[in-house]
Specification:
11 strands; 453 residues; alpha+beta; 10 helices; Heat Shock Protein 90; Helix Hairpins
């Protein structure tokens, strides 16, 4: 179990460092194998080819030096220049002779250890090796019986440049191919991003008239399915709205006749009771229609939320309701104003129905804006806070219409919030001692509306 926990911990750490976007993950799938292949190929090439080529070059050069020294020992003084000339012509190594006193045995360098090892194995004479001309030339001095033989050759003779060229070409080609792959990958990711944006906008009630299927066949298929789904939902909403318009007309006609008949009965007790029943029926029908109608065909417009909330609070204050707006941010958002007002009125009416005071707040958090509505009522038990959003659910067991609606206020409010891409949650309102600037004396219910910016 301990081992499995460690494994899960390691996997979690790796996941935290992995890219979260599809483009980042696809790019990682391209880059990681390419880099690993390059590392493996480079390691194998260096380990095999580089060592083998270096060893052969060092062995051949040491053999040339050994052969030249043997020729010098065997040649007469009269043929010495001819031997030197042939050697320089055949190998390109410059040859010089100096006095034996100029030899310094401790002047040996640590460069090219492989070559020095082969020289020690092939010649018996003492020698020194060092780099001169800023490393461009290798100088070898060999102590002969009568003189010092000095050989000068370029460093390139003992270092193969093909390996570096190979690695540079491999890296450059990989970078070019990766850049081309990134361009194609972006073109493949763009349709997916546009599909996600179109779905998000549709969920918030916005539209993308220019959206059309393009990209890979799978993405086109998903885009076409989304367009068909969107049209079906729109058609269903239109059908429902038209049907409800007819129902509204059919229901209002008999209610109007009943109200006319009640007006003809006079101010009797029976007529008053029937009139109250008719008003309750009208109120219930309005709530049913508001719930079923949704947002209709209302278009979203850019709105200053702080001004809208201030106006709503002022409307309640003119009706002598204790509603206060505490502005913390000036925020703007595309909303359906009528539906938004309906949502806020439902929540505020509910707060004033069970409490005496209501406080509205507005603030920005990360990429969201939060509208808080606090009251000083009894609140809602935590285990029932999700239940109150269900249609026709009321916590009042008496179901008395005079003490509340039909249980659709919070349902309509959540539908409006969801249609704007947001959410509604219920919490306990803060006590006054936790919030000194609050106008509330006692904590009640807090409704939090979160909307993306």
């Amino acid at each position: 179990m301990c081992f499995m926990r460690k494994v899960r911990g390691i996997v979690k750490v790796i996941k935290d460092f992995l890219p979260k976007s599809l483009f980042g993950r696809a790019l990682l799938i391209l880059v990681l194998p390419t880099v690993l292949i390059q590392l493996v190929v480079t390691y194998v090439f260096f380990d095999r080819h580089w060592d083998d080529v270096t060893r052969r070059i060092a062995l051949n050069t040491a053999g040339e030096v050994q052969f030249f020294i043997q020729q010098l020992k065997q040649a007469d003084a009269s043929h010495k220049d001819d031997v030197v000339g042939e050697f320089v012509k055949a190998t390109g190594i410059n040859v010089f002779f100096e006095d034996a006193d100029s030899f310094r045995k401790n002047a040996i360098s640590k460069e090219f250890p492989e070559f020095q090892r082969y020289l020690r194995a092939k010649i018996e004479e003492p020698f020194t090796l060092r780099q001169i001309d800023k490393g461009a030339t290798i100088e070898i001095r060999v102590l002969l019986p009568q003189e010092v033989l000095k050989l000068e050759m370029t460093s390139k003779r003992l270092a193969s440049r093909t390996t570096i060229i190979f690695v540079l070409w491999m890296v450059a080609a990989s970078v070019v191919f990766l850049l081309i792959a990134v361009v194609f990958l972006r073109n493949q990711i763009r349709p997916i991003s546009q599909l996600a944006e179109a779905a998000d906008n549709f969920g918030r009630g916005l539209d993308m008239p220019g959206f059309r299927p393009h990209g890979a066949s799978e993405v086109r298929r998903a885009s076409r399915a989304f367009i068909v789904m969107r049209e079906r939902i729109k058609r269903q909403i239109r059908t429902r709205t038209e049907m409800l318009a007819g129902i509204s007309h059919d229901l209002r006609t008999p209610l109007t006749r009943m109200k006319l008949q009640l007006a003809m009965l006079g101010d009797t007790e029976e007529a008053k009771e029937l009139s109250d029943d008719v008003q309750q029926m009208e109120h219930m029908i309005e709530e049913y229609l508001d719930f079923a109608r949704g947002e209709g065909g209302e278009e979203a417009v850019r709105t200053a939320l702080h001004e809208l909330l201030s106006d709503i609070a002022a409307d309640y204050q003119r009706a002598n309701a204790k509603v206060v707006f505490v502005a913390q941010e000036q925020l703007f958002k595309d909303i359906r104003v009528s539906a938004f007002r309906r949502m806020l009125h439902n929540i505020i009416d509910n707060a004033l129905r069970y409490g005496k005071k209501c406080e509205i707040g507005l603030r920005k958090t990360a990429n969201f804006c939060e509208i808080t509505i606090d009251d000083d009522g009894p609140g809602i038990p935590e285990e029932k806070r999700e239940e109150v959003f269900k249609p026709f659910i009321r916590l009042d067991p008496s179901r008395n219409a005079k003490t509340g609606g039909v249980g659709l206020g919070l349902t309509i409010a959540r539908d409006v919030a969801l249609a704007h891409g947001g959410s509604i949650v219920l919490e306990s309102a803060p006590e006054s001692n936790l919030k000194p600037e609050s106008n509330l004396k006692n904590g009640g219910l807090r409704v939090i509306i979160r909307l993306p910016l």
